[in-house]
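A favour, since you know our structure tokens better than I do. Go ahead and set the record down below.
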Amino acid sequence: MNVTVSPDKLTAKDFASDQEVRWCPGCGDYAILKAMHKSLADMGACPENTVFVSGIGCSSRFPYYMATYGFHTIHGRAPAVATGLKLARPELDVWVVTGDGDALSIGGNHLFHALRRNIDLNILLFNNEIYGLTKGQYSPTSRVGQRSPSTPMGSIDSPAEACTYALGCGARFVARGIDVQAKELDVLFRRAREHKGASFVEIIQNCIVYNDAVFAEFTEKAVAADMQLHVKHGQPMRYGKDGNKGLRFNAQTFKIETAVIGENGVTESDLLVHDEKNRVLAGLLVALRPPAFPEILGVIYCDPAATSYEAAVAAQEAQAKAQAEAKSGPADLDKLMRAGNTWSVT
């Protein structure tokens, strides 16, 4: 049974634990943590009904800093542990906190199954394109040419794209935010929690020690307006310092391209209108990356399924129990244990 003991209104401090926060000074994780504390309080979440599950990595310290329940599990297995928890206690709000290395390397298989099953988990992937906790090795999302202790001559791997991967796994909710944009993160956290089914949120996060300013091409204040597009359902895809830039679809090349309103006869009506229920559009958007395109942020795809995995499991269990009781009477564990061939040891 879901027991609520929290007062009607909590503050961000009520969600902060008494543990010393131990990330490198200037790490983007601090901003994400602070945003989460405030967001949960504003949403009216109950600490006793909230659980954070993490794997291994800098991001995976998260449960220690939350005044909620939590599990610090093993490398890549947070989605699996969270799945078991959600099946056992479906009424709980379960959040998975993972990093690009944790989730997309050893944890790729577990993340895949959590997303394809559509179990009601809120999965936050902190992407800094590096292994921070183990001192700066390249990760699955590191770019070609990335120099690190494990790639001294530069990485030759083709990087994984987190949101593209999530869509490919069958995720029904895919979003992207930036660590220091607290207001935008609050919207994404709320939408993820409201979504019934697996929610996937990639958070662009700066590692100030091992991969500092890797996202500067679209996060620096001087260029942010011209290099970030915050999509909103039903609204034209406009961006830019003057709001005169946008994205349009070229039917001849079957590609998305940038455009400037007022140039070459382009008007706002020529721009794409965001439809978060359009999976094909979502796939096109997550493939757009700077510097040729602005970074696409916000809720990119949201199309809830009729039911989530844990709800379907509960319904199937209830059906099986009803069928068994109709055939053999009420369930009796003692009777079951003594059924069939038994023997006594004296």
